[in-house]
Amino acid sequence: MILYYKRAISDILDHKFLNTVTIITIAISILIVSAFILFFKNANNVMNSWKKGIRVMAYLQPDIPEPKVSEIQMKIKGMYGVQDVRFISKHEALNLIKTQMKRQSSLFENLKENPLPDAFEIRMTTSLHNQEKIEALATRLESLPQIDEVEYGQKWIRRFTSFFNLFKFVGYAMGGLFFIAAAFIVANTSRLVLYSRREEVEIMRLVGATDRFIKAPFYIEGLIQGALGACFGLGALFIAYVFISSNVEQSLSSGFFTIQFLSAGTLFGIILCSTFVGWLGCYISLKQFLQY
Amino acid sequence: MTDGKDNSTIIRMFHVHKTYGNKKALIDITLEIAKNEFLFISGPSGAGKTTLLKLLYLGETTTEGQVLIDGMNLSRISHKRIPFLRRKYGIIFQDYKLIPTKTVFNNVAVVLEAMGKKRRFIEKKVKSVLRTVGMEERLQAFPPSLSGGEQQRIAVARAVIGDPKIILADEPTGNLDEDSADIILKLLKKFHTRGATIIVATHDKELIRKTGGRVIHLNQGYLQKITAA
Ligand SMILES: Nc1ncnc2c1ncn2[C@@H]1O[C@H](COP(=O)(O)OP(=O)(O)O)[C@@H](O)[C@H]1O
Ligand SMILES: [Mg+2]
Q: Which pLDDT score is estimated for A57?
């Protein structure tokens, strides 16, 4: 076994150019795919944090008496998926706006009457942050006669979700394509290496070497190519990540969200996948080359 | 296969034909080779000598007829068994077939590596065999930097390192000066006395005369005659 590794490594050194090209190509494929995964992960994080912040606002019709208000509040609280209901009176709402818009407080001085409605702020249980559930709740709220209007940022959620799904699909498709492309690139390299060494392979056979003995170093080469390619690709991604995230965090000094790098598990998975690709490429070319 | 009356026979060919496309290289060859024989296959160029050797190690497959090695029928051997058949042989190819990108040491060692021998054993054995052929000084040389005679000796070293039962030598003295040829011949005789069966294909009548042994005469694919030792 150690002998096989030695032969594989000396083979790689004997075919530096071919191996370098292969490793670079794998690295680029891995870079593109993992950049997608990284972007996807962070977009997902952003979306989740947005979803967590989702409040459904239910505005009441004017002049509903207090006991009726608490009755409605109890009713909403009992609805499916509702975690918390807070009553925000129109005075409270106005004060809130006033403190938020201190500079423009003169605007409010001329108000004779509070123009804002009373409202309920409803938070949903986190497990139910999905489009249909939110819409279902909104419909139920609207059916209450005392509720005037329900608001929950429906449009952008819908758009974002469909964009996100499209994005996910594109990501999977690209990942698949790069996977196949990388496998064929490895297959091609080992075919070239095999071709440049067909004489040697033939001689080894004539002196009694088994196919296994002849193939083993090629497989090890493929595995090494795959693993190294992944490491370089991910390394490049990490450098890009450090560069971009420091810039983004500067511009979004608020730090309301931070870009995260891929988790150790994901990194490991990508390296494993790439190693498998290296193996697969070898398998393809050896299958074609070493049959007779 | 046979009634076993002659268990000293190591190779049998039975009505063997070989055609390349429509070129008949061997026609109806039937012969037996005994264990520990020193046998020549002679004949002019194109007679079919190389082809006959190839059929023995499955470098080519027989078109018709049967070849039996150690009682094993080569037309029924599975693909997986071919390497093990070839390990019965030490083959000295007409064109040496050394791997140009590997050192002398590695060229010879590959036989034992393929057998899965231990590194330390390989090192010792390769060195000792290279000493036998007088090439111990050139361990790290690459074949293209060696003379024809030296390459031939490396080819011999590789052929004998696995202690094969049968040594096939195709024109082993073909391109060599007389001194180099004598060295090779001495080596073959040495392995013969150690019990190997030696089969030498050659068109060199002088070599046959000097050595002595049974001779199979081929001509244009036909077995013309067999002259006893
Ligand atoms: N691979 C091949 N394809 C076609 N014809 C071949 C091939 N090998 C040998 N021959 C032909 O078969 C005949 C016998 O060849 P060979 O066995 O090499 O003869 P020898 O070794 O006695 O010189 C020759 O006529 C040669 O041209
Ligand atoms: Mg010949």
A: 82
**Predicted confidence (pLDDT) per residue in A148-188, tens digit:** 888 776 666 677 777 778 878 888 888 888 888 888 887 88
Q: Count the domains in chain A.
A: 2
CA gap A251, A109 in Å, rounded = 36
Helices of type H across chain B: 49-57, 82-86, 104-114, 119-132, 148-160, 178-193, 205-211
For ligand 1, whether the C-beta of B46 sits within 6 Å is yes
pLDDT of A254: 46
The reply to whether A91 and A123 lie within a common domain is yes
CATH number for the domain harbouring residue A120: 3.30.70.3040
Length of chain A: 292
Residues 6+ apart with CB under 8 A from A236: A27, A31
Domain shared by A164 and A284, yes or no:
yes
- Please judge whether B59 and A205 are an interchain contact, meaning their C-beta atoms are less than 8 angstroms apart: no
State whether A3 and B113 contact (CB < 8 Å): yes
Q: Say if A141 falls within a structural domain.
A: yes
Least confident interval from A67-71, A288-292, B174-178 = A288-292
Which residues between 189 and 228 in chain A have a beta carbon less than 8 angstroms from any beta carbon of chain B? 199-200, 203-211, 213
Alpha-carbon dihedral sign for residues B143, B149, B154, B159: positive
Interface membership of B61 toward A (CB under 8 Å) = no
> What does DSSP say about strands B64-69 and B9-20: parallel, antiparallel, or unpaired?
antiparallel
Are residue A177 and residue A36 in the same domain, yes or no? Answer: yes
Nearest to B111 by CA among B186, B163, B33, B44: B163
Measured in Å, residue B48 CA sits from the centre of ligand 1 at 6
Which sign, positive or negative, has the C-alpha torsion A195, B110, B50, B73? negative
- For residue B166, the model assigns a pLDDT of 96
Site of tokens 């190779």: B11
- B78 chain-A contacts, CB cut-off 8 A: none
Residue B68 has pLDDT above 90, yes or no: yes
CA A118 – ligand 2 centroid, Å? 105
ipTM of predicted complex: 0.90
The parent domain of residue A247 ranges over 2-50+158-289
One domain, residues A79 and A38: no
Q: What distance in angstroms lies between residue B94's CA and the mean position of ligand 1's atoms? A: 13
